[in-house]
């Protein structure tokens, strides 16, 4: 973990639907994106060593706002609502799209997006679209492949290759195999995040 941050000093700062509600300062932000249920909240909880700071839920699609987490007044995590939840209307989906796009394309504080995918499966069309979107806007991206504990270690490489292939992965990006159950990839995730923040604190 980071020697620069007291991660115990972390809390949900605010939830925002649009720009006018974003925090107004210069703190660096790292956003977390991924489909519902991929493990975003669990990732935040593990990185901050908290049981339930970011709510983990077996009911997907519950979080509909951008949740800004303050970490030691030095950095923020921004939990972006999960995509690919089947049971929302087209109108809801469009609203969701505009909210994410507004944040990702206009937020000066944004330093990187941690894009979470499930190590077990090929990336969904939404996963691929998200990666393409981030590459198009030149937003630094860290791919975190979650739920590694659910497949044997001997198969990790094969799954990693399949995901990279489907994403047309840029080898300059970070690819981290992660598990919220056994904390595989915890240090690597912090290293990548700290590198993206690049000495701002
Ligand atoms: N086995 C395993 N389960 C996980 C992992 N990460 C998340 N989960 C489970 O997957 C479900 C969804 O996780 P959550 O963090 O709420 O996903 P979110 O919707 O992306 O925020 C929950 O039941 C978690 O306990 C992981 O690394 N390994
Ligand atoms: Mg969540």
From TrEMBL:
Highest rank taxon of the organism: Bacteria
Example GO biological process: division septum assembly
Keywords assigned: Cell cycle, Cell division, GTP-binding, Magnesium, Metal-binding, Nucleotide-binding, Septation
Entry annotated with the keyword Calcium: no
Pfam families the UniProt entry points to: MMR_HSR1
Co-factor(s): Mg(2+)
One GO CC annotation: cytosol
Protein purpose: Necessary for normal cell division and for the maintenance of normal septation.
Family: Belongs to the TRAFAC class TrmE-Era-EngA-EngB-Septin-like GTPase superfamily. EngB GTPase family.
Protein name: Probable GTP-binding protein EngB
Species annotation: Streptococcus massiliensis
Gene: engB
């Amino acid at each position: 973990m980071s020697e620069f941050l007291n991660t115990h000093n972390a809390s949900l700062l605010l939830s925002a639907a649009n720009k006018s509600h974003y925090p107004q300062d210069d703190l660096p932000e790292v956003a977390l994106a991924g489909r519902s249920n991929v493990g975003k909240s669990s990732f935040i909880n593990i990185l901050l060593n908290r049981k339930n700071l970011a709510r983990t839920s077996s009911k997907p699609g519950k979080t509909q706002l951008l949740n800004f987490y303050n970490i030691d007044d030095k950095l923020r995590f921004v939990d972006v609502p999960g995509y690919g939840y089947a049971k929302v209307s087209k109108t809801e989906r469009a609203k969701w799209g505009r909210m994410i796009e507004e944040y990702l394309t206009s937020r000066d504080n944004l330093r990187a997006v941690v894009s979470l995918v499930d190590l077990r499966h090929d990336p969904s069309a939404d996963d691929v679209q998200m990666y393409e979107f981030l590459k198009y806007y030149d937003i630094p991206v860290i791919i975190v492949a979650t739920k590694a504990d659910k497949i044997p270690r001997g198969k990790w490489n094969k799954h990693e290759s399949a995901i990279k292939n489907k994403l047309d992965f840029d080898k300059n990006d970070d690819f981290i195999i992660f598990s919220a159950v056994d904390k595989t990839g915890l240090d690597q995730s912090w290293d990548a995040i700290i590198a993206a923040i690049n000495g701002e604190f």
